[in-house]
Specification:
Strand content: under 5%
Radius of gyration: 30 Å
Largest sheet: 2 strands, antiparallel
Helix content: 40-55%
Order of helices and strands: HHHHHEEHHHHHHHHHHHHHHHHHHHHHH
Number of helices: 27
Distance between the termini: 54 Å
Low-confidence stretches: 1-7, 51-60, 88-122, 139-166, 616-625, 643-707, 727-735
Oligomer: single chain
Mean pLDDT: 73
Strand order of the largest sheet: 1-2
Shape: globular
Structural class: mainly alpha
Length: 735
């Protein structure tokens, strides 16, 4: 019976593409005119059971056109292959065989081919999973290509397994997959007292870190929601869920909310489950609100916060971020709100949410290899550096100059951090463009970092009579941590040259600066972790703060192998021992810290084993050459201190004074620095950001934690290849 019904069913006469889109099909060929207008080809225009419209009976002109196109493509491929072969064997400035009359136009320009070759050399790889899903892996750009044929290839991490779990998040709401009632959405909210707690935690901890809302407006709307849950829109409800998802990560380990609502065995699992639950609920609210076609400032704020939450958990965000960007454009947020008739709060909300979106985009863009951001050019002014209350009490207030408000406002941290991420993008562009010449020099980028540091000092100046609020104190430390991270990243190639034996005034000065920044970074990490008032900031010390501290610890551990004296050795070892204890204390909460503990312990053990304070000194000629370098470095650093007044007495705990290298007399007997840090791969070059510093012998030596890791591995927590550091596996975030 079923078979007879099946064979008697009338087959559709419209093509599948038009039927799927539910649009009128012209039914006049393959492809039909409707598909032609939509840019589809014959392979997409399929008719079920219609032999008269099959590919074999397509108009005769189609085959001729296709053959002509194929011939033109083959011709272009041949020309391209000849050009690439000739470019490889022709000296710079040779004439392009394509000539100036080529239809390709700009392709005949030598500089275009230079940039194209550089671009091709620095792209990542495509990874296809067994299920057929394709993923672009930017982290492998130079690192994998350099070591693929070397012994270090065995240490490469399994990049197919580094995607953090996000199955609990509802996928991007491109369509409404079934309706969900308001009652069902409200049922996902935690009990009222817990909802109040999480809301308060967000505005006490996260609001000043990522200030894209007008807190007073949201608070008034929240109170209205508590009295009448049906009075708010589903987009506002999505914003509330996004806030709850972020706030969960700031709760203390023993907070009853985690065990009551999460009911998992560990703190990290409870945080993961709850944050994913509320992120998913936020996306459901947006889908119910019809975010594909209808937008509001609340829906855009919710999307930006969801992206922010996911990027801090190491989850993929590229697709959702692009969707969010286009929602912002569809609302006109890419244009300065002064062009429209809007109130002061509405104007600042638009500027803030756009600035937050651009910051998240810069973070993701940097991790993906500093892609071209020219497409993001816009004329939106930065948000005003004022508190929310000023928008209510002085709605006609003009945008103030920074000197008008010496004390930090609710917007100060975001504005300063935005500057740092812009500098970070430039640094990473320099790293990713190697060996091509970068637009930026190290000295220029260092000057930009110092400029932001001076702004931080001015805005967060210590005042015993009027101490800063706790959130401003925490933000102060976090900004300095980011500054030292950028300095370590920027100066890393020069430090590697020093470790390879290139002793110059520049490399010696770099060594001193790196030690100072690494010490300061660890000091900030300990302060944030041990100060009781900073307990709500464990979300930072467990994540990005741990990464900054780990980078600092690895830097000091490498220097510990060749200290400049007994006192420096003991000081650095004490710092590393303390850092090890800090990472161990966070291991229960942070997977990153649990992976860092065995690595740091191993580095300390190796350094302790190899250090020999009784070893003989180097040859007299080497010591004389080094003494000359030290004198030059001493004069250079003294000049810098006198001219720029780098150090501030009130910030000694954040910015340790720079020390000058004293001697190199603690290497093992009969070994030079070059022997102790043997270059394990012949492609390593002086000045390269990819020096592979590791022992080629079978002796008990430290893993090439610092030297063999590409600078891209120090960009963010998700970029650390744990498999190449030690026996641990995995990624980053809460497990």
């Amino acid at each position: 019976m079923a078979s007879s019904r099946s064979t008697g069913k009338r087959l559709p006469i419209s093509c599948q593409a038009c039927r799927t889109r539910k649009i009128r099909c012209s039914r006049d060929g393959r492809p039909c005119q409707t598909c032609v207008r939509r840019g589809l080809g014959a392979e997409d225009c399929i008719y079920l059971g219609q032999p008269r419209l099959s590919a074999e009976q397509s108009p005769p002109g189609d085959n001729a056109v296709q053959n002509e196109l194929l011939a033109r493509i083959r011709n272009l491929e041949g020309l391209l292959q000849k050009q690439m072969s000739s470019h490889a064997g022709t000296p710079t400035g040779g004439v392009s065989p394509l000539g100036g009359t080529s239809a390709a136009g700009s392709f005949s320009e030598p500089e275009t081919w230079d940039s194209l070759g550089s671009m091709l050399d620095n792209v990542g790889t495509l990874r296809t999973s067994p299920s057929g899903h394709v993923r672009y892996v930017p982290l492998a750009s130079q690192w994998e290509s350099l070591v693929a044929k070397s012994p270090a290839a065995e240490c490469l991490p399994n990049l197919d397994s580094d995607i953090a779990e996000d199955e609990d998040d509802l996928q991007i709401p491109l369509a409404r997959n079934g309706s969900i009632s308001r009652a069902e959405l409200l049922s996902i909210l935690p009990p009222g007292r817990y909802c109040d707690t999480l809301k308060d935690v967000y505005f006490q901890v996260f609001s000043s870190v990522f200030h894209i809302l007008h807190d007073l407006t949201f608070e008034a709307e929240y109170q209205h929601f508590c009295h009448d849950p049906g009075s708010v829109s589903t987009s506002w409800l999505a914003l509330l869920f996004a806030i709850l998802a972020i706030a969960v990560s700031a709760l203390d380990d023993d907070h009853p909310l985690l065990s009551d609502l999460g009911r998992e065995r560990t703190v990290s699992r409870n945080i993961k489950v709850l944050s994913a639950r509320y992120r998913s609920a936020a996306l459901r609210c947006l889908a119910a609100d019809g975010v594909m076609s209808r937008h509001s400032i609340n829906s855009l704020q919710a999307l930006v916060l969801i992206n922010y939450a996911r990027v801090h958990r190491g989850l993929p965000i590229w697709t959702l971020l692009g969707f969010t960007h286009h929602v912002a454009i569809s609302m006109g947020c890419h244009l300065d709100p002064e062009r429209f008739t809007l109130g002061p709060i509405e104007r600042e909300e638009r500027r803030r949410v756009w600035a937050g979106l651009m910051m998240v985009y810069t973070i993701q863009n940097t991790a993906f290899g500093s892609l071209d951001q020219q497409g993001l050019t816009q004329d939106v002014k930065m948000p005003a550096d004022i508190d929310d209350v000023d928008l209510l009490t002085s709605p006609s207030l003009k945008r103030p100059a920074p000197s008008t408000f010496p004390r930090p406002t609710q917007m100060t941290y975001l504005l300063l951090n935005f500057r740092l991420y812009k500098i970070s993008s430039k640094i990473c562009e320099t790293i990713f463009s190697y060996p091509s010449t970068s637009r930026f020099t190290t000295s220029d980028l260092e000057a930009e970092i110092i400029s932001v540091r001076e702004m931080v000092e001015a805005r967060y100046a210590l005042d015993t009579n009027n101490p800063l609020l706790i959130q401003h104190q925490a933000n102060h430390h976090i900004l300095y941590s980011q500054i030292h991270q950028l300095l370590l990243l920027l100066l890393r190639p020069s430090l590697c040259r020093y470790l390879q034996g290139e002793i110059t005034p520049e490399t010696c000065s770099t060594r001193a600066k790196c030690i100072a920044s690494a010490k300061a970074s660890l000091s900030i990490f300990v302060t944030l972790l041990e100060t009781p008032s900073f307990k709500p900031y464990k979300w930072y010390t467990s994540g990005l703060g741990s990464f900054h501290a780990f980078h600092a610890a690895v830097t000091l551990a490498v220097i510990l192998l060749i200290p400049e004296g007994q006192s420096e050795y003991e000081e650095i070892k004490d710092l590393l021992d303390r850092a090890l204890d800090m990472f161990a204390s966070l291991s229960v909460r942070s997977v990153f810290c649990s992976k860092a503990v065995p690595i740091i312990r191993q580095m300390i053990d190796v350094a302790s084993t190899k250090y020999n304070p009784q070893s003989p000194t180097h040859s007299q000629s080497h010591l004389q050459a080094q003494a000359q370098v030290q004198a030059q470095v001493q004069a250079q650093v003294q000049h810098q201190q006198n001219q720029a007044n780098i150090q501030s007495q009130s910030h000694n705990h954040l910015l340790p004074s720079i020390q000058i290298p004293l001697s190199m007399s603690n290497l093992s007997p009969g070994m030079t620095m070059q022997d102790n840090y043997a270059i394990s791969h012949p492609h390593s070059q002086s000045g390269s950001p990819v020096p592979t510093i590791a022992s080629t012998s079978s002796e008990h030596t430290m893993h090439s934690s610092f030297g063999s890791m590409h600078p891209q591995n120090w960009i963010g927590p998700t970029s650390v290849p744990w498999d190449s550091l030690g026996p641990t596996n995995g990624g980053y975030g809460f497990d």
